[in-house]
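Service request form, structural biology core

Requester: graduate student, group of Dr. S.
Request type: structure prediction, single chain
Budget code: on file
Notes: please return the result as structure tokens.

Sequence provided:
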Amino acid sequence: MTHYYTDDERNEIIRLYKSLRKSIDDIISNEDVVKITNIINKGIQENNYTRDKFGINPALRHLSTANTLIESFGADRNMIIAILIYNLCKNGVISEAEIKNEFGDDIAKLIKGLLQVSLLYKKRSAVESENYHKLLLSFAEDIRVVIIMIVDRLSLMRMINHHPDEKFVTTIANESKFLYAPLAHRLGLYKIKSELEDLSLKYLQREVFTQIAHKLNQTKIKREEYIANFIAPVKDALLKAGLKFDIKGRTKSINSIYNKMVKQNADLDDIYDLFAIRIIIDTPKELEKAKCWIAYSIVTDMFKANPARMKDWLTIPKSNGYESLHITVYGPDNQWVEVQIRTKRMDEIAERGLAAHWKYKGIKSESNLDDWMNNVRDLIESGSEGTTALMKGVKMNIYDKEVFVFTPKGDLYKLPQGATLLDFAFHIHSRLGCACIGGKVNGKNQKITYKLRSGDTIEIITSSNQSPKLDWLNFVVTSKARNKIKQSVNEMNARTADLGKELLQRRFKNRKIEEEESLLMRTIKKLGFKTVTDFYLSISNETLNVNDVIDTYLDIDNKDKETAVHETAANFVLQSTDTKEDRVSNDVLVIGENMKGINYVLSKCCNPIFGDDVTGYISSTGAIKVHQTTCNNLKHLLKKDPNREIKATWSGKLGSQFAVTLRIVGNDDIGIVTNITSLITKEKDTTLRNISIDSNDGLFQGYLVIGVGNTTILNDLIKKIRNIKGVKDVQRSNN
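Core staff response, request fulfilled:
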């Protein structure tokens, strides 16, 4: 040991050892001392007491930590033993099983917690993250582990003044500032918290720290006298008013003063509340506000108040529950003094409001933290015998509904308990989740279904061939992952369906078949598909043959045409025309060369009406069928026998109604159908004869048979229907 340590270090180790032995004589037996000594000697023989890579003396650090713990909390056998042998266990000098056998379960538990927490030290890039604090508390498992860590960090901070490795000092100071000082504050360790913050400022901004410290030291005695002189008359006045109270005065810490200087952009001499006086009134809750305002009036009667610095958190407390009156008064010798007035209850809330810092930032997941931390504070501040023994029962499972995991770069993320590796991938980025095929967890390959555990380091593995699957929904738990999987699958299905639609359209074109939407819808329904998307997906995925689709389509089309072609005039009777008047009223059509009274029928395949361009066709029965000149059936018939065509024109005599079929497509909404039928029934010279509706994939398709007198009336009606909200298309149908 002499070989490694300086004379100053040896002297300090001896002093700390003697102090420790004196403090623990009553709680640690000679047998324990012998066991600890043997373990330490073994560690020395195996070179485990040499300086660490940063030159820190481990013996000095552990003895300092043990003594600081005793100063702050009193002596505790198990915590002190854990401090002295933890590092030897970490270096393999003694195993956890041996510790359990030699010293019992509780010390083994403490050392296990310290070992687990030490794993997080490698993740220093995440220290400033609020999630890191939560992860550390989860890993510690025992509140005493957290306390040991904080005290150990204070000991280390005291040791590294003027350390040659500036990067090491900066890292330790930043950790102390962002992690250990806030933890100390939350546990009520205000003295430790202030020292950690001051030392952090000292190492991170030494020049600023030195300037403030030097100026404060120059005026220390004067300031103490000033505070005493300020308090004395205030105290007398409060006593005369019959108030029961406690009054304290202090100069703020160097770090607190520096923060004020930065915030106010001022020099030290210009800081308003360099002096802080706190008046704590002991009174029943129902009299709190009244008593506080009495104290306020006493202070402001004695000293001139700065109204711009008045802060009334009595009337409207802070969002974290903080209640107090803050006033800044112009004290003797032209010095500004901040005076805080609150009751004993308010002071306890202010001092014990453990989650206040976090709630003020909007953190909502701390509901269990209040009770847990308040319990810890009560134990620490009570100072009663057996405090550390009581703290053994404090559970650290306050974050048991969350897991905290790292990326390979050390970034820290919070996910819900039960989250999988795939959830984590989607949490980082949607594209990463969609391409995820697995990952490495703490260096080991894992499947996408692996359930995350706090402290895991996750590296996602992706493949360009991967795509989201619906069965992923069976194991992911985060809403982001579930929503993105559904969205991605739907988008892929839509793209795939578009490919199927394009394939079918190309095949129609290749076979020179004119695609008709209504006929295709009937085909889809006949093939047993509930949605158009499913139909096109089947084509794209080759589970449905395109040729089979077209054959079914043509089969339906041919049956329709056969029905139209084989119509006869059996239902129509040739009317005799005895008078000129009868011919005038009935002969709406002129057939051939001004022939009238001829037996004819309006073809049902195209339903011509007055105003359409028409022509006649002599059927095999001799009856004349009148078609629109654009009718496909007529074209088909004339190809076979063009000599059967006979001229037909409208005579110009109105009065009859003609049946017309309209095909309407729109959004699948019952309100639309009501609006359409209502419009038709209100139209003059128009009747609604029949209606049939079919809905599919969010759209409806309807066929309406209406009676109209001519094409002018029909065209006006079609325009009006197109203007109805939700209607996508209206066409005259020839089927």
